[in-house]
């Protein structure tokens, strides 16, 4: 029931007096209005913009935030108003909903901002009025598509899972040629061979001069029959191999075989095999010639290589009804005009309009404004109807064309938007990454500063002086950093930034290759190695899932001698080292171990291993 | 004085209607542009038994639903139908409309609305009974005939809709009318006059009690 009508409830109840005299049974007791709430004005302060309304207006919808006691949480005693720290522009629409019972969606607002406000105030979006509902749903769908696109990108591009089976790997290589160089090479090779094959088919038919013992010209195909046959064979070999590989790699073979592209593939290579099988029988050679026509379908294999072609095909598919209408109306018009022309020209002598089907040709040529001129009406009536025919032809063809064009334009722009989103995604991810690195660096600085301040405090306490603290970080940041620090202490690991981590990985793998003699070292770097190979996408080595997963969970705590011959990569940590000489130093890398020891590339590997052998204490991680 | 004021109000509306009666298309535009403004708050306060605040609340609700200031019969039926979604409230709303539209000009203004409510919610039992009698007396001739009563009864039962328990039968309204007439029609002349009606109702405890039912509605 609309809220506005609720105001008329007293009237409806009063009018019920009219039933009383005719009532056959006594009436029930009316409900007691327990809280005789004063209908007062409520002030709603939304980020400084003051809205006022009656209390009863808000209470029309008791299952929303404003209509229930939930709003008491936002009551501000000092100013005797309800304060909400939200967007006042969107709040205007929400308040209007209480007033009029209809929720509107403003077109210029962002859909996610609007949704958030609705969710905050406890209003379900389904009650948006009819006037704005379509727009709202459209925008919501676009937003969802965008999010879904992002997710798909994430899933397909980011992680190269180690444990792909060969089959899955093959399928991925076929679908996204950019994943590996081999796939890319294969992609271009097939494209090249498609082009070669199509050109060969075309050149085959060109007249190539005369043979010495014949008088008439022969086509190139007949003259160099063997060459063309070899070329054809090579192309078909490649296509067959490609098709079989795709068939093997497809996750769902039935679905793959029913897909359009595979049908095209089959149709492209079948004529060759049928030609091989068939003998030079005269009766079937005619059919064989027909089959050669199907070789031209190889050109459709290019649609895997061209997105524009795919869009065109998709457009035609989606405009099927318009095309059907065009065809139907043309057929109708053709039949009508052919009949008329036939009967109009029946009288004239030596006329070409021998039958209605014969007149079809004239009608089609005229309606499409081709006008070959091989069939021309001679009678006046025929000419009159012929002109009407050509005029109407223009109209009938022009009508469905804009629909098809607009469909194509819409789909094309959609794909362009997807491309743009993909391109922007890279910059967006880069931005996110940069922000993360900044955060990590800030944290590192905090830690250094913290320890520095600690030492300074100690020093100043000893010296008996007060410590002057420099301009501190804002309280939020310092609390956040303290939290991260607590986490580090809990897990006994430390945060490092990405470069340091990757550098550590590289160094470890270097040492690994150098042949670590120490058994204790062998397992852990290997574990690191496998984790690094996950990070390094360039490496195409899909190392088998190592048994070192167990080792990965162990960490190695070792005594850290004060050694200044560390590599510059750990320079930051170096500064902190002298302050904590007597504490056991926890290895800084997230995934265990030997990083600090092996980062010194200049150190002798043997001494490293010896050192690590002596000082390794294995502790299971939490 | 009341009638005079009512006359001036209706004269105003009539004048507006007369001016625009020339052109049919412009007619609708003009009529819809006519905004009816109610009498001042003090006058209404004097004429009804509502307090100032109550009048304010009533007017706000009224104006919200009918921004033009008057309710025509279709809007009235719409509003009333929203309270009875299962059945068809249009016939009863029609009778109600006629009962509220005391000056019979085809629209219920705020004054009519508030007058009617004043009687129903704050009036004496006598006034309420007279109002009910007016409601039943469709042609306002001072007598309730069986046909009029049957119409009213059917309208009331229509509001119930189809899904009732026990199932509504065709002759239920008629039987109800018979019962009513047996009770009300003392001299058995086939019609119920206002005195018979009031007398009978005042002797019936149930009806007396129910008259006070909706007093605290506002």
From TrEMBL, chain A:
It is found in: Membrane. Residues 40-139 form the BTB domain. The keyword Ion transport applies. It is a multi-pass membrane protein. Keywords: Ion channel, Ion transport, Membrane, Potassium, Potassium channel, Potassium transport, Signal, Transmembrane, Transmembrane helix, Transport, Voltage-gated channel. It holds the Pfam family Ion_trans. The chain crosses the membrane at residues 182-203, 223-244, 256-274, 323-344, 356-373, 385-412. Belongs to the potassium channel family. D (Shal) (TC 1.A.1.2) subfamily. Kv4.1/KCND1 sub-subfamily. PANTHER family: POTASSIUM VOLTAGE-GATED CHANNEL SUBFAMILY D MEMBER 2, VOLTAGE-GATED POTASSIUM CHANNEL. This is A-type voltage-gated potassium channel KCND1. It comes from Austrofundulus limnaeus. The gene is LOC106523653.
TrEMBL record, chain B:
One of its GO terms (molecular function) is potassium channel activity. It is a peripheral membrane protein. Its main location: membrane. It comes from the Eukaryota. GO terms for cellular component: peroxisome; voltage-gated potassium channel complex. Residues 88-123, 124-159, 172-207 form the EF-hand domain. Keywords: Calcium, Cell membrane, Cytoplasm, Ion channel, Ion transport, Membrane, Metal-binding, Peroxisome, Phosphoprotein, Potassium, Potassium channel, Potassium transport, Repeat, Transport, Voltage-gated channel. It is found in: Cell membrane; Cytoplasm; Peroxisome. One of its GO terms (biological process) is regulation of potassium ion transmembrane transport. It holds the Pfam family EF-hand_8. Coiled coil: none annotated. Belongs to the recoverin family. This is Kv channel-interacting protein 4. It comes from Austrofundulus limnaeus (Annual killifish).
């Amino acid at each position: 029931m609309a809220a506005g009508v609720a105001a008329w409830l007293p009237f409806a109840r009063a009018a019920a007096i009219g039933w009383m005299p005719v009532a056959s049974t006594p009436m029930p007791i009316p409900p007691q209005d327990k809280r005789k709430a004063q209908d007062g004005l409520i002030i709603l302060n939304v980020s400084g913009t003051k809205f006022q309304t009656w209390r009863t207006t808000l209470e029309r919808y008791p299952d929303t935030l404003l209509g229930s006691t939930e709003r008491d949480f936002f009551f501000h005693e000092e100013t005797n108003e309800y304060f909400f720290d939200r967007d006042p522009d969107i709040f205007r629409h929400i308040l209007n909903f209480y007033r009029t019972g209809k929720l509107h969606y403003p077109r210029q607002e962002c859909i996610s901002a609007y949704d958030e406000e609705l969710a905050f105030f406890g209003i379900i979006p389904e009650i948006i009025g009819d006037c704005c509902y379509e727009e709202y749903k459209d925008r919501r769908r676009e937003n969802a598509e965008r999010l879904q696109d992002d997710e798909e990108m994430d899933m397909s591009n980011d992680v190269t899972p180690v444990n792909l089976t060969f089959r899955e790997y093959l399928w991925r290589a076929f679908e996204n040629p950019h994943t590996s160089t081999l796939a890319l090479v294969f992609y271009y090779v097939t494209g090249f061979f498609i082009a070669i094959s199509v050109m060969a088919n075309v050149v085959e038919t060109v007249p190539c001069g005369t043979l010495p013992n014949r008088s008439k010209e022969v086509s190139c195909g007949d003259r160099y029959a063997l060459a063309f046959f070899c070329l054809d064979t090579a192309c078909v070999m490649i296509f067959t191999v490609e098709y079989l590989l795709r068939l093997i790699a497809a996750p769902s073979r039935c679905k793959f075989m029913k897909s359009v592209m595979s049908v095209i593939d089959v149709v492209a290579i079948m004529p060759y095999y049928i030609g091989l099988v068939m003998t030079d029988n005269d009766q079937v050679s005619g059919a064989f010639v027909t089959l050669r026509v199907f070789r031209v379908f190889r050109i459709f294999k290019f649609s895997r290589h061209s997105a524009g072609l795919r869009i065109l095909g998709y457009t035609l598919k989606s405009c099927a009804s318009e095309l059907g209408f065009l065809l139907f109306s043309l057929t109708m018009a053709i039949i009508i005009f052919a009949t008329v022309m036939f009967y109009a020209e029946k009288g004239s002598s030596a006329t070409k309009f021998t039958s209605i089907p014969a007149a079809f040709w004239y009608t089609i040529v005229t309606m499409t404004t081709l006008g070959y001129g091989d069939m021309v009406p001679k009678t006046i009536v025929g000419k009159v109807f012929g002109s009407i025919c050509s005029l109407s032809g223009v109209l009938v063809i022009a009508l469905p064309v804009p629909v098809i064009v607009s469909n194509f334009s819409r789909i094309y722009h959609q794909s362009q938007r997807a491309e743009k989103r993909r391109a922007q995604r890279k910059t967006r991810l880069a931005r996110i990454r940069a922000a993360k690195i900044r955060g990590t660096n800030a944290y590192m600085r905090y830690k250094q500063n913290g320890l520095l301040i600690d030492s300074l405090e100690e020093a100043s306490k000893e010296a008996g002086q007060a410590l002057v603290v420099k301009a501190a970080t804002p309280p939020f940041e310092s609390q956040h950093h303290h939290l991260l620090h607590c986490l580090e202490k809990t897990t006994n690991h430390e945060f490092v930034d990405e470069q340091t981590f990757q550098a550590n990985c590289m160094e470890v793998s270097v040492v690994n290759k150098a042949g670590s003699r120490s058994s204790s070292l062998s397992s852990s770097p290997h574990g690191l190695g496998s984790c690094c190979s996950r990070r390094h996408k360039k490496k195409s080595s899909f190392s088998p899932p190592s048994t070192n997963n167990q080792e990965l969970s162990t960490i190695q705590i070792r005594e850290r001698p004060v050694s200044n011959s560390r590599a510059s990569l750990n320079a930051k940590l170096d500064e902190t080292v002298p302050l904590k000489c007597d504490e056991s130093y926890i290895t800084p890398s997230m995934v265990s171990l030997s990083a600090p020891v092996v980062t010194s590339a200049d150190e002798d590997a043997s001494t490293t291993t010896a050192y690590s052998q002596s000082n390794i204490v294995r502790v299971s991680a939490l | 004085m009341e009638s005079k004021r009512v006359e001036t109000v209706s004269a105003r509306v009539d004048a507006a209607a007369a001016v625009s009666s020339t052109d049919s298309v412009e007619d609708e535009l003009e009529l819809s542009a006519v905004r009816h403004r109610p009498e001042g708050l003090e006058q209404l306060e004097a004429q009804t038994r509502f307090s100032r605040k109550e009048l304010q609340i009533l007017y706000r609700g009224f104006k919200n639903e009918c921004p033009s200031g008057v309710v025509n019969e279709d809007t009235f039926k719409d509003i009333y139908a929203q309270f009875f979604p299962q059945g068809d409230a249009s016939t009863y709303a029609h009778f109600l409309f006629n009962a509220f539209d005391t000056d019979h000009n085809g629209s219920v203004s705020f004054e009519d609305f508030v007058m009617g409510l004043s009687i129903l919610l704050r009036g004496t039992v006598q006034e309420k009974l007279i109002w009910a009698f007016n409601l039943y007396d469709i042609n306002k001739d001072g007598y309730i005939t069986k046909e009029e009563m049957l119409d009213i009864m059917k309208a009331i039962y229509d509001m119930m809709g189809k899904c009732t328990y026990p199932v509504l039968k065709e002759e239920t309204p008629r039987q109800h009318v018979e019962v009513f007439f047996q009770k009300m029609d003392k001299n058995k002349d086939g019609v119920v006059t206002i005195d018979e009606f009031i007398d009978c109702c005042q002797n019936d405890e149930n009806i007396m009690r129910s008259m006070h039912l909706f007093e605290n509605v506002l």
